[in-house]
From TrEMBL:
Species in which this protein is naturally found: Dendrothele bispora (strain CBS 962.96)
A GO BP entry: Mo-molybdopterin cofactor biosynthetic process
Any Pfam family hit: MoaE
Protein name: Molybdopterin biosynthesis MoaE
Top-level taxonomy: Eukaryota, Fungi, Dikarya, Basidiomycota, Agaricomycotina
Length: 151
């Protein structure tokens, strides 16, 4: 039986609409993402999710993210559209990393600016939770296996 190699569905892509950017990429330039929404509004809220070093008591060395990029970027844009309807006026950027993300490095950045802090905080949390819940992005943790035995 021969094995077939399928092309990866994870690839870099971005979607830009007035006042927002959504992106999937293998690197994240956090300062540039944050600056992209800084339009002089009174409130700027940023969430930067990083790979933590443990999960359920086990040491994590890295996370690996895969996505169905075509659908994930569309879903992210729809989430941003809903945020625009519910928390206007805002500007936002939602960037999610693909591939290997070592401990301590960012995997997602959500940046929001609005005239007032309440809208900025609420929009940022809404976008983050909806992306985690709906976007076609999957993560897999890589654990350090520590074996010990005595002679």
């Amino acid at each position: 039986m021969s094995s077939m190699i399928l092309p990866s569905a994870s690839f870099e892509t971005r979607s830009e609409i007035a006042g927002a950017t959504c992106a999937l990429s293998y690197t994240l330039d956090v300062p540039t993402i944050i600056q992209s929404v800084n339009d002089g509004a009174g409130a700027n809220v940023h969430f930067i999710g990083t790979t933590r070093n443990s999960f359920q008591g086990k040491v994590v060395t890295r996370l690996e993210y895969q996505a169905y990029s075509k659908l994930a970027i569309k879903t992210m844009a729809e989430i941003v559209g809903t945020a625009f309807e519910n928390f206007k006026p805002i500007r936002c950027a939602v960037h999610h990393r693909l591939g290997t993300v070592p401990v301590g490095e960012p995997s997602i950045v959500v940046a929001v600016s609005a005239p007032h802090r309440k809208e900025a905080f609420r929009a940022c949390e809404f976008i983050l939770e909806e992306v985690k819940r709906k976007a076609q992005i999957w993560k897999r943790g890589k654990l350090d296996i520590i074996l010990s035995y005595s002679i």
